[in-house]
Write a structure and sequence with these properties.
The complex is a heterodimer.
Chain A lengths: L1 H44 L3 H7 L11 H8 L2 H33 L6 H13 L4 H11 L7 H4 L6 H13 L2 H9 L4 H12 L1 H16 L3 H6 L8 H10 L20 H35 L4
Helix pairs in contact in A: 1-14, 3-14, 4-8, 4-11, 4-13, 9-10, 11-14, 13-14
Chain B lengths: L29 H34 L10 E2 L5 H4 L1 E2 L3 H8 L2 H33 L3 H12 L6 H12 L5 H8 L14 H26 L3 H9 L4 H26 L6 H7 L7 H4 L2 H12 L2 H29 L7
Helix pairs in contact in B: 3-14, 4-8, 4-10, 5-8, 6-11, 10-14, 13-14
Classes of the chains: A mainly alpha, B mainly alpha.
Chain lengths: 303, 337
């Protein structure tokens, strides 16, 4: 009996080691497949333009060249302007959005707030039924006159109902005694909110804030609808307009060089994509666990 | 664990147990009503003020467009405005459903979203199960990061990635096919391949996100179940099918139901940027959202686009409502309302 058990467990362990290797190999392959497009774009941004045209996109550049990046550096106007638009909308939108959503969520989280239920429904209804694109577009452009305004890139995303409820769920878990005792001591609602609730809620606020940053940074929808002038293009929309027009490079300072040098069109597009992706990739690596935590708050609450 | 058979009882319904002690049905005593209102305002005024900016923004961007829905029943002219344009009854809908556009965008939306739900579930569950089996926490985190990464990449950039693979002259795929002696394909004008390409792009972008959610669910399972199963000689596979998957079922079901609730809405970025809005591909890639957008942008037919949009909103509303109702039966905590 003892012998049998021994054999069983060593067998089991040896099989375990083999399966571990297999699982690791499979996951490594999956991971590489998922990273492959990124690597391909980075490598083609570093490939010499003539080589790129001849051999096509390849994972390992046959002839390395930094021309694409040099051209971007020589004529950085457009990408810098796009960066500043994106940074503006992202910071203003995230800061204002967080404050507005937190205040709304806090009011809705208070069990003694008499209008909690009708107002919650007011928020929930927006998740269920939309007026649709056309009425919204006409409202924004003809009633609010926000066409080609940076406000059109910020205002529509300030209050996301889903995040309001995520914050509310968190606020409900805060001990009520803290709020009540502060109020007995004479603190106003505002003071309770800013000096007790907000400091206690930094994890939830950080998570929602990160999602807002990602949403504003990666937004291509609002500029596609509302922005016309190139000086107001955010990053994603600049990338889109580059993809659309091949002749974009022939404007600005770069055109002066056209006579002497072959312009790296293809590799430069890919370099632009890399430059635009940079910050979000770094943010991803640094802050990934906060995102994960936030996702789990949203999907597994009460587990 | 949450069972399907659990019926929500009264105590599960939030708020139903709490009722105002002096609330008497039927008779409204006006003096009481007003004094209570005054007390309410005094007590709740500040909280209401806090909620006000958010409510105002929702009012402007979500409620104010609602009257504009009537455009679907009008011959909209910009110069005449929404309410000045002529009523034309159901003409826009007639026109929409008479052409093959309505059928095409509806079937494309429903078919592709169904494929996305099924393949996405299989891919993310598989990744989560594999990650759950890996013993080295460090390696697991590396794998997890690399599958999660695409979630942070915008669809515009995914469009660039796709272009590196698919463009006719220098795309990687065609180069590979050349090398293998196959005929190259002009991908951006061959609609028959796009259901596969779009599915791959969808899996690539979202599988990491969902696998993290399922992995967290797996880590929440009590290890005693597995220990007991091992003592009984259950294999890893038996443990997965006998313990992990059944215990994960409620989360899976709820995610599927919520996706079904949104099945009438397509991921615009995927269908617009990854296809590069190539009109040659519309047969298999045109969905309700891209159709409405084109109505606004290139066709300039606001009436028909609004009709398609309203069609989407109404069917979408019914689906979300039904899906949420079912979710509420399974687990009241997870429902949206």
């Amino acid at each position: 009996m003892a012998v049998a058990q021994h054999t069983y467990s060593t067998n089991y362990r040896r099989r375990g080691a083999i399966t571990q290797t297999i699982f690791n190999l499979i996951l490594m392959a999956v991971g590489l497949i998922f990273l492959f497009p990124l690597l391909l774009v980075i490598s083609s941004s570093l490939t010499d333009e003539v080589t790129l045209a001849r051999t096509g996109f390849a994972l390992i550049p046959e002839k390395i060249s930094f021309d694409a990046y040099n051209f971007i550096r020589m004529d950085p106007g457009r990408i810098l302007s796009a960066y500043s638009v994106t940074i503006t909308t992202t910071t203003v939108g995230t800061v204002c959005g967080l404050l507005i959503m937190a205040m709304l969520a806090y009011a809705l989280s208070r069990q003694d707030f008499a209008w909690r239920k009708p107002l919650s429904f007011f928020v929930i209804f927006t998740m269920l039924f939309h007026g649709g694109l056309i009425p919204t577009y006409i409202l924004v452009t003809q009633t609010l006159h926000l066409k080609d305004s940076l406000l059109a890139l910020i205002l529509p995303y300030l209050v996301i109902p889903w995040y309001v409820f995520l914050l509310r769920t968190y606020f409900i878990t805060l001990p009520k005694e803290l709020i009540e005792s502060a109020k007995i001591d004479g603190a106003s609602e505002w003071r309770v909110f800013f000096q007790i609730v907000i400091p206690l809620s930094t994890p939830a606020l950080a998570t929602v804030g990160l999602f807002c940053i990602l949403m504003y940074w990666n937004d291509w929808w609002l500029p596609l609808l509302y922005i016309d002038s190139p000086s107001k293009f955010p990053l994603q929309y600049l990338l889109y307009s580059i993809q659309k027009s091949a002749e974009f490079l022939t404007t600005g300072e770069a055109s002066a060089l056209l006579q002497t040098v072959e312009l790296p069109v293809q590799s430069m597009r890919m370099a632009m994509a890399v430059v635009a992706m940079g910050p979000i990739a770094i943010a991803f690596l640094a802050l990934q666990r906060y995102f994960v935590r936030g996702m789990l708050v949203g999907s597994l609450k009460g587990e | 664990m949450i069972r399907l058979t659990d019926q929500p009882t009264a105590k599960h319904r939030p708020g139903s147990a709490i009722s105002e002690p002096d609330a008497r049905p039927g008779a409204i005593l006006w003096p009481t009503f007003f004094s209570r209102l005054a007390r309410n305002i005094r007590k709740n005024g500040t909280l209401f003020l806090m909620a006000l900016p958010g409510l105002a923004l929702l009012f402007v961007f979500q409620y104010m467009p609602l009257p504009g829905i009537v455009i679907a029943f009008k011959n909209y002219r910009t110069s005449q405005g929404i309410f000045g344009s002529d009523w034309i009854g159901l003409k826009n809908f007639e026109y929409l459903f008479k052409t093959d556009a309505a059928i095409r965008i509806t079937t494309n939306t429903l078919f592709l979203n169904t494929v996305f739900i099924i393949t996405g579930l299989i891919a993310s569950l598989t990744i989560a199960l594999l990650l759950n089996e890996v013993r080295s926490r460090y390696l697991a985190r590396v794998y997890q990061s690399s599958v999660f990464f695409p979630y942070f990449v915008s669809w515009v950039i995914v469009g660039y990635f796709g272009f590196a693979f698919l463009n006719g002259d220098s795309g990687l795929l065609n180069k590979w096919m050349e090398r293998a002696g196959l005929n190259t394909v002009s991908w951006y004008s061959s609609p028959q391949y796009w259901p596969y390409i779009l599915t791959a792009a969808h899996i690539w972008k979202s599988a990491g996100y969902w696998s993290i959610i399922y992995l967290a669910g797996m880590m929440g399972i009590n290890t005693e179940y597995y220990e007991a199963a091992q003592i009984d000689g259950a294999s890893r596979w038996q443990q997965i099918t006998g313990i992990t998957l059944p215990l994960l079922l409620p989360i899976i079901l709820i995610n599927i139901l919520l996706s079904i609730g949104r099945i009438f809405y397509a991921d615009f970025g995927l269908f617009y940027y990854v296809t590069r809005d190539s009109s040659l591909l519309y047969k298999t890639t045109d969905v309700i959202d891209t159709f409405v957008f084109r109505g606004l942008r290139s066709m300039g037919d606001f009436g028909m686009a609004a009709a398609a949009g309203l069609y989407q909103s109404v069917v979408g509303f019914v689906l979300i409502f039904v899906a949420n109702w079912v979710v509420k039966r399974i687990d009241p905590e997870k429902s949206i309302f």
